[in-house]
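Dear Dr. L.,

I hope this message finds you well. Following up on our conversation about the binding site, I have prepared a predicted three-dimensional model of the protein together with adenosine-5'-diphosphate. For your records, I am including the exact sequence and ligand specification that went into the calculation, followed by the structure tokens. Please feel free to forward this to your student if that is useful.
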Amino acid sequence: MDPVNESKHDRPAGIPPNDAASEPSGVALWTLEGLRLSATVLSILYVAYAYLHSRLPGDISRVLVPWALCSSLLLLAIRWQLKPGDEGRPSIHIYSVAVAVIVLCHGFVVLALTRNPSQSVSLVLLLVGSSYIFLSRSLLGGLVVVVLIGWVVVAGPEVMMSSWRDYGMALISAATLGFILQTTRLHTYGRLESLRRQADDRALALRQRARHLETLISVGHSINGFLNVDALLDYVVETLHTSFGYDYVGIFLTDETGRYLDSRAGTGVAAKQLLAEGCRLEVGKQGLVGWVSRYREPVCVNDVTRDDRYLKVDLLATTQAEMVVPLGVGDALLGVLDLQSDRVDAFSAEDFRVCCSLADQVSTALQNASMYESERSRRSLMETLYRVGRALSQTLDVGEVLDLILSSLETVVAFDVGIVALHREGMLKIVAGRGFPDDVESTDEWLAIRDGGAYQVICETKQPLSIADVADLPAWEYSEVLPNTRAWVGLPLIDAEDAVIGILSLSRATPDPYSSAEVASSAAFAGQAGIALHNAQLYLELSEAYRRLRSLDSAKSDFITLASHELRTPLTLVTGYSHMLLEEPLLAQQSSLYSMAQGVAIGAGRLQQIVDRMMDLAEIESQSLQLEFAPTLLHSLMLDVVQQVSAAASQRHIHVVLEDFSALAAIEADQASLGKAFRQLVMNAIKYTPDGGQVLISGEVRLADQEGLSGQCVEITVADTGIGIDPVHHERIFDKFYNVGHVGLHSSGTVKFRGGGPGLGLAIVKGIVTAHRGDIWVESDGLDVDACPGSRFHVLLPVVQPVLGEEMRLKFLQNECPDLEISRVGEPESSGD
Ligand code: ADP
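The resulting structure of the complex is given below.
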């Protein structure tokens, strides 16, 4: 079936028909030319005629000469009046009659004066010639009648004489010939005229087609450059409107459900109104647009009153012809192009073909622009989410983060009012909002939760709920906070336990439903809001736990301080009295009582050690550890330490090796506390090394470059061949009361293999090292009682402490090491042998 289903013609739309009445007639043009030529030639002939008669004697010549001259002058005057371009004027008929009358009068005058029937020849010629100068058949007819009657009158009674009768017959023949000539001439000219018009029409149509093709090519080139769908559609409708002259051009695009066609672009006032009203048609249902969207075939109706599929739209009530072309790529329908005209037969087959090709190009460009737009919005969404994610990690102010989420969401999804509300006391408490009037504080507002309402549905499904137009839901309860809601979407805020704790609500004041892409974007932001709220909750819990820990820690410190102080005095008494008892001679004689007193003394001694440690720790924690820095030679200090642990080492058959430290420079340190620290480290090494193992104490000078410690340092390492320490404990073993082993391993012995203590030793060591502005850390491959990978405790100590003056250092070094060559700080070192 030819899609152009109504009467057709070759004239393109928008071009007016070729109106014959408005154009100069070719016949009239040629008549004018003939008249001008006839007037000129006849005028000359009459002058010649006058000249010839002036040479003849007689009365007739006296009349005919002036008559001929007058006729010549009149003809010249008429010739003078006839100008090129007069062919369209009605006066041309008057001039042709005037010429005919002059010739007629001259013919009759000659005939009457001469009474010679042969003079009828001029009338015969007049009748034949008039067929060329008269356009109108009635004028020719009138002339014929006048000539015949006049001739009969002039001939008088002699008319039936053979000489007159022959000329009479000649006149009748001339009249007939005149009619035939005029008819043939007019017919020929008419035919020529019609051919000329056809040629003009063809040329016009060709020009039109060339213009259409040019437009098509230029549109095809231009539309590929559009990256914005709306700009592309506007360009297409405007170009079709201006270049092709269609009264209405509109484009409908399918919505994401594929069920509706939304008006997206159009020309003219009506189209703008359709756009403003958000006109949408159901695919496959309403009007020619619906028909085309259903069958995916273009259609052209040149008289809409004769097509049942046509649906009259009030805003386009004057439409007489409509052409609708589908826009699609492959099987996917993207939309339709709708063209309407106020004229019947407005669209030609050529228009139809052009629009179909244009629709193909527009479809491709449309798909490209849509893909670009969706990619761009996806990128913008990712960037916004990234920004929000960064903000989330940088602040714990939940209000700030939620405000940021709403403002960022606004750049991705359009909404009039946005709310983050949390479930509290059976209601929804707004914790962040956007789009509220200036005088309303959004966070003061509460929303009611209704049985079976939107919030409950969201809680049950844990899925977003989008409502295209809440006005369609009679059960929708408008809240005072959101009175103008039309399109609405609610998204669940889900916590770490997968429970819905609140809602992200977005609403628009227009029935412009949220697309699934918009809902997906909003869901991503709702997820961020959920994380923010979860983080805030965690932060609160963490702060609370931290506060509790701090108070526990301080209670523990207080207890240590208090207990150590309180135990000290009775312990001194117990120790003192036990020693007194042991020295009592009476007791020495009673061995059982003596060994009891010994037990009390040993126990008191052990207790004293623990109380001393507690005292040390209390001092460290209260930062009241009094250190007396003095230049200290590590070699002698370490020799003392080895000496002190030798009994324990030999008890456990541990070989303690001390590297030669004599080459190490003296460091500024509190000798007593540093000795205590190293003794603890070596004792630990002995304790956690199986019998027969080895403890190696080594040291080296090195430059340190770490936070809080730089410059020349001494690094002492206590390495053992013991059971090792699991890396997960490497940091924490320096905390007070931290014990790696099982509590069941706790032992009151100080040298027993793996005999755990109270967990204070390393805490004190670290406190002492830190008070020296030093650093301590442990290295070990892990805990393995069988393989015994060993542990290496490193102590890094600065050579120089800021509290000692340089002079004092030099004095010490000169006293202690008189053989050493000593240079001041900043002086170049002497190159001693
Ligand atoms: P304690 O006072 O109980 O000995 P410390 O603070 O001295 O406690 O040590 C803490 C923990 O570190 C110990 O329980 C032990 O498990 C581990 N530890 C310390 N030194 C060593 C070592 N040289 N080898 C293996 N483990 C060690």
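In brief: The longest helix spans residues 516-583.

With kind regards,
A. P.
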